[in-house]
């Protein structure tokens, strides 16, 4: 029941990127995964800038897995810019981070995160958590048409 929309994974840690991709594969998630390794790359992907100039921006991700501690543009600023633009304001965003800081949790929800999940440090639990997140957002959650707010 996967959608044709990609998953946008915004992650600067190569180990966490590999683990997330492995978890999606292990859970038979067939959606394309676009990896942005910093916040600016994520924004460029979403809005058709930089190396993504000319990308069909009417095809938005089914879900964004967003780390907070990112180079160039941090995750909270990415979230702020997403919610400020009507083209991306309703996209599902799951903050997937190591941060346990109460102010990060509060600010992420204040800015419109749909969920805030701390990355498990245990390998198997990480795989299970990412798999469950993907299953929920791709197979159970009603995505709607995010191109027409």
UniProtKB/TrEMBL annotation:
Residue positions where 4-aspartylphosphate is found in the record: 67
Biological processes per GO annotation: phosphorelay signal transduction system
CDD domains on file: REC_Rcp-like (cd17557)
Pfam families (alphabetical): Response_reg (PF00072)
SUPFAM superfamilies recorded: CheY-like
Chain segments annotated as transmembrane: none
UniProt keywords, alphabetically: Phosphoprotein
InterPro entries linked to this entry: CheY-like_superfamily, Sig_transdc_resp-reg_receiver, TCS_response_regulator
Response regulatory domain span: 6-134
UniProt xrefs under PANTHER family: RESPONSE REGULATOR RCP1-RELATED, TWO-COMPONENT SYSTEM REGULATORY PROTEIN
Protein name: Response regulator
Native source species: Candidatus Dactylopiibacterium carminicum
């Amino acid at each position: 029941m996967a959608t044709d929309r990609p998953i946008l994974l915004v992650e600067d840690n190569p180990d966490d990127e590999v683990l997330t991709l492995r978890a999606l594969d292990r859970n038979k998630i067939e959606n394309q995964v676009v990896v942005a390794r910093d916040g600016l790359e994520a924004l460029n992907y979403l809005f058709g800038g930089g190396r993504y100039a000319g990308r069909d921006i009417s095809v938005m991700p089914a879900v964004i897995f967003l780390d907070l501690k990112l180079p160039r543009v941090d995750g909270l600023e990415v979230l702020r810019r997403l919610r400020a633009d009507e083209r991306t304001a309703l996209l599902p965003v799951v903050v997937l981070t190591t941060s346990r800081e109460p102010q990060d949790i509060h600010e992420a929800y204040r800015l419109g995160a749909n969920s805030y999940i701390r990355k498990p440090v245990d390998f198997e639990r990480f795989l299970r958590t990412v798999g469950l997140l993907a299953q929920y957002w791709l197979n159970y959650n009603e995505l709607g048409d995010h191109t027409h707010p």
